[in-house]
Amino acid sequence: MLRLIVDDEGQLWPDLLQKLPGRGVYLCMQAECLNGMSDRRLQPLKAKFKVDFPQWEKVKERLVSILHKQLLQMFTRLRVKTEIGRDAVMHRLWNNAPVLLLIATDAGDAVVRQIEDAVEKREQAGHKSRTLSVESKQWLGEMLGRDSVAVAALGTSGMMATNVRKLNQYCGWYGQLKVIG
């Protein structure tokens, strides 16, 4: 769920960190909810707030922009602890600690197959790993300050757990918003 704040001019703003002042409503960010979202679905807000319509396209643009900035900021902070590239990721997978794998949708078949095989072997040994598909090699490269990155890995234990959980959530939301256009 994502909090939307209504400002004095009747505009809706996403409150990603849930720290903005003011009253608002919560928006379901699951794929089913977002696919059916429109200005018609936002009409009940008029009962509680002074809201100008049409709003959904603006809210969606603001949300994509804010998520992109937040993801860029998070990846910049986490870059030091991120394993980038096939060799580094494969080495990281043999460590027993939990890991989050970021795989670009346009990554090569051989790389994806090799990573998936390693993940399967890890899980058979009882070690956790989550896989998250991201938009493209170009996008992942931009987030990590490189030209193009097909695969990256982040440890998910200890102090990294909260950051990685939020990163996973925001990447999911960003992807869902990109899919609905």
Automatic annotation (TrEMBL):
Domain spans labelled YlxR: 1-63
- What this protein is called in its record is LSU ribosomal protein L7AE
Q: Sorted alphabetically, which InterPro entries does this protein's record hold?
A: Ribosomal_eL30-like_sf (IPR029064), YlxR-like_sf (IPR035931), YlxR_dom (IPR007393)
Q: Which UniProt keywords apply?
A: Ribonucleoprotein, Ribosomal protein
- Keyword Ribosomal protein on this protein? yes
Organism this protein belongs to? Mariprofundus aestuarium
> Which spans are transmembrane here?
none
Q: Name one Pfam family in it.
A: YlxR
An annotated GO cellular component of this protein is: ribosome
Give the organism's phylogenetic lineage: Bacteria, Pseudomonadati, Pseudomonadota, Candidatius Mariprofundia, Mariprofundales
Gene3D superfamilies, A to Z: 3.30.1330.30, YlxR-like
